Each structure stands twice: as structure tokens, then as C-alpha cells.
Fold this protein.
Amino acid sequence: MSRDIYLVGSVPLKSAEDVFKTVGPLFGNRLKHIPDGETGKRLDWITWLEPVFSQNPALQLSDDVFRLHETAKPIRRYGLRPGYTASDIKIDNLFYADIAKESYGVFKRLKDAGTIPAGTRFQVDLVPAHSVIWLFLTDALHVAIDPIYNAAVKREIEKIAATIPHEELAIQFDVASAVFARLQREQVGSYGRSKAEMQETFSNILIDLGNHVPGDIELLYHLCYGDSNHRHVVEPTDMGDMVEFTNRVMQRISRPVQLVHMPVPRDRADEAYFAPLKNLRLRPETELCLGLVHHTDGLDGARQRLATARKFVERFAVGTECGFGRRKPETIAELLRLHLAVAELP
């Protein structure tokens, strides 16, 4: 059976051009969307966005230190500067559109030259407020700043859509551990007083952002439990929270969704992990991708996870759990070849 391949985002090569020249010819038509690899300072996901807060005149470093998990890098969060209120925090340029415009120029040149297949779209990855402010802002600011930050994300969508031809473009939203760690832990707070309320809040946020993407731009959702120091923020019990979140989005979003990506931990080839997939209600146009490719146990491990997944869902694309940005560059060639081998598994 031939399967599609999906790249979540970061690929630690030297430049976007290197990424396009590597994965375009290698994967061909199996790869419907190609990200620019989030190379350089963007390889460590959203840490490059710290200047949005460090250079904001209403904010200053606080004594609040945040860790995604006990071995993750500590991050000092920002709080209000004396004399300022949350309403003084303005968020203007998030730079996604500026970066996308530059990378798309390279993508288009290589596509015109035949290096990238004609039907492939350029993929831009965006991160909603709840993930970014979880890292960078004290908890007391989350309620006030979440809509301010997401309004800035919407402006980035508008700028991207005004710059890149829609038929050439896909936009991915990263629905990361700020969502699924809270759900797994039932960590109630500003996003809900119960697990059900949090599901409602987070799905509404992603529906609202998704509906802001013009309908002729493809829309993708990457669900994630984190990859700091190659560890999840919390280990998922099963796929239940991801399935419920996806079903909520599928039921209420007013535009098509082309793909939903769900991770599969390396040590989960058991039926209990995949069993919630029997309740997944995707739309006809929506492709499921399972992130079951792991460099550390290769083809044999992927074969076991894939065989179990097929007991609950027949067709799906394949990829890794998360981006490659924290991997050593010398491992990437082998990891990409592994994608091809997994895509051909029966």
C-alpha cells in the first residue's frame, strides 16, 4: 500500500532551499505540502518569538520560571512592568508573513524548475496564543493576552494570504502540549473549569482561527504532546483527547480541513492507545496522518505501530510525532529514507 508522507515543520538543514531540494525530489508526489524547515533560529519551535515579549514596553522579566517538564530548559516568564495594565500590551508583527514571503520565493523558483512536484503546496506553520503565552507570560496575563495575540495571528494569516497564491498554499496550526498536557492532567484554569470546558475552549479557538483561513488555502492541524529534550510534556494515556478535539472541530468548522496529524509514542503499539480512533469522525476531504515514524526504532517499530493502527483506521498518511528541529542534522537523511520505507509498508 502506498501512503502519503507528512512533514510537521522543522528540518535542521542549512536553509529553506536545502530543505526543498532534499525533500522535493525524494518524496515526490507523496508529499502534498512542504514546509520551509523552520531553519536557523526557528528550529527550536517558538523560542524565537521571545522578542515579541522582551521588547514590549509593558512587560518585564518576572521571577516566575516555567518548565515544560522537569528536564526541559527553564524559561523566565514576563509579567507587567509597574505602572502598566494588560490593556497596554500591544502585539503587532509576529513576522510569520515576512518569513513566509521569503521562503515562498525559493519554493516557487524550485517548483518552476521541476525540483518540487507541480501539485505540491507551500506549508506555513502557525502557533495559537495559548502555546506561546504558556511559555512566555505569567499565568495572570493569559486571559487578557490570549485574544490579543490571536488577533495578531489572524493579521499574519491575512498578510500571508495577500502575498502567496492561494492555490499554492497550506496553513498548519500547531495544537501542542499547552492543550493536550492540560487535558491529560485535567489542569483546570483560565481555559476551563473542567476537562469538558477546556475541550470546548480550545476547539473554539482553533475553529475560529481555521475559519479565518480563506477556503481555497488548505488547512492542516498538527496535534502534539511536545518534544523538548525528546520528551513529551505528559505521556498520553491514549488517543481519546485528540479524537474528541478533532471531532469537535470537524462538527463545527465552516470550511474544509485537509489534514489532521496525531502523534504515536514510540512505546505505544498496543490496541488501547489506538482504540479511540474507532470514534473518529473525519470529513470526507480530511486526511488523517499518524506520527508513528521514530528514528530510534526504525522500520520494525513503525511496522508494529502501523499494524495496530490499521485495526481501527485503514487509510492514513505517515510522519513523525513532531518536527525534526531538535535532531542532529546528520540523522536527517536516514530519517527521511525511513519515511519512504514506512510509506510502502503493507
Q: What stands out?
A: The beta strands are 33-35, 59-66, 75-80, 121-126, 169-175, 218-223, 259-263, 287-291, 317-318.
